[in-house]
Amino acid sequence: MHQVKLADEIYYVGVNDRKTHLFENYWPLPHGMAYNSYLIVDEKVALMDTVERTFIDEYLSNIKNILGDRKVDYLVINHMEPDHSGAIRSIVAEYPDITLVGNKKTFPMLENFYQIKENTLEIGDGDELPLGKNTLEFYTIPMVHWPETMVSFEKTNGILFSADAFGAFGTLDGGIFDDELNLSFYEEEMMRYFTNIVGKYSPHTQRAMKKLSGLDIKMIAALHGPIWRSHTDFVLSRYDKWSSYQTEEGVVIVYGSMYGNTEKMADVIARQLAVRGVKNIRVYDASKTHQSYIISDIFKYKGFIVGSAAYNNEMFPSVEALVTKIEHMGIKEHLLGVFGSFSWNGGGVKNLMKFAENIKWDVVYEPVEEKGALKADKFQMCIDLANAMADRLNAE
Fold it and tell me: How far apart are CA 197 and CA 259, in angstroms?
């Protein structure tokens, strides 16, 4: 590969994954994934994290293309998740004298995953590791999004090696740096990455950002997605917005429908929202669209209106899975509406109201439930539900 420099003596040695369909065997990767790693070639050589184990041959080639016969002195382990630690065994085999740098929570995981416990250097908050011209300074950011996660700040050039924080889905297709890319694409994939991978730990993310706020960060080198050198304010401001649950005016409508009756109610609600001037309306069939896209939009927009057909006296399964995930993630500060239908016995709306009680969002209107096809009285209630949501959005 072409040698990509972040600064004098600091190189990108990551890889692209265009074969994996599901990240963590769950989240869709229509645009693939980049596994980033970095190499500091100074008086001492430091490797910043590794890559997923499938790419070991390519990864070692990238490193040797820069180092030749020089050895690696340090492997800094900012994050132990296997998509970044997967090549550790191979690195240790290739460079047996290497010292593994991590914090007190890193090394139990290292032993559990890879049975490695020799040649380790434990660091704490604010500790430094001089490499020559370059010096690394370490800060733990627990639960962003694993308990051992830390970042490494290279003081000479102001580069923050940020682990999974500030990452994005998507391969790096030629462009490695933010100013080489179309940021509108990466903003969408960065938000989907944050909301689904990191979003549950938003309070921890806020604490981490405050902890790092005193650093003079000139570049952010995450473990996924582009390297941010020209638009650090772009990524920092969005992480601050998303992790503090700031939303835009808009409504996500999600439904589960077998024969179209609940879907019809969703369309009536959506149309009335548009009549009332709401521009950002997203309507999703929970059985068709993967949760990751829906959750990303729920983080983005203030209103959430959810509908379910009754299914074996319960919610429709795809809706139940979605609201369970939302509840588990602890998303806050939203407006909620509930609707649904049933054929011979209820269950969908009743259980959605249990979700409403648990999530503690502000319910804007009484639940709307129809038996069979949509009729005039419940049609009007769908209109009223949309109006109530529009009124609240306008008021806020």
Answer: 34
| Residue 138: half-sphere exposure toward Cβ, Cα within 13 Å | 23
Question: CA 396 to CA 37: how far, in whole Å?
Answer: 43
Decide if 209 contacts 243 (C-beta within 8 A). yes
Assign domain 4-243 to a CATH class: alpha beta
Spatial CB neighbours of 59, under 8 Å, sequence gap ≥ 6: 13, 15, 37, 50, 51, 87, 90
pLDDT tens string 217-276: 999 999 999 999 999 999 999 999 999 999 999 999 999 999 999 999 999 999 999 999
- In whole angstroms, give the CA distance from residue 385 to residue 303: 12
CA atoms within 13 A on the CB side of 21: 1
Rounded-to-integer distance, Cα 127 and Cα 372, Å: 66
Torsion sign, CA atoms 70, 75, 76, 82: positive
- Mean pLDDT for 79-101 is 97
Spatial separation of the C-alpha atoms in residues 141 and 122, rounded to whole Å: 15
Q: Give pLDDT, residue 374.
A: 96
User: How far, in whole angstroms, is CA 65 from its chain's centroid?
Assistant: 32
Asked if residues 80 and 148 have their Cβ atoms less than 8 Å apart, the reply is: yes
Superfamily of domain 251-395: Flavodoxin domain (3.40.50.360)
Q: Sort residue 313 into left (φ over 0), alpha (ψ -120 to 50) or beta.
A: left
Alpha-carbon distance 321 to 332, whole Å? 18
Regarding pTM above 0.90, the answer is yes
The domain segmentation of the chain, as residue ranges, is: 4-243, 251-395
Q: Which residue has the tokens 């379910």?
A: 308
SS3 337: strand
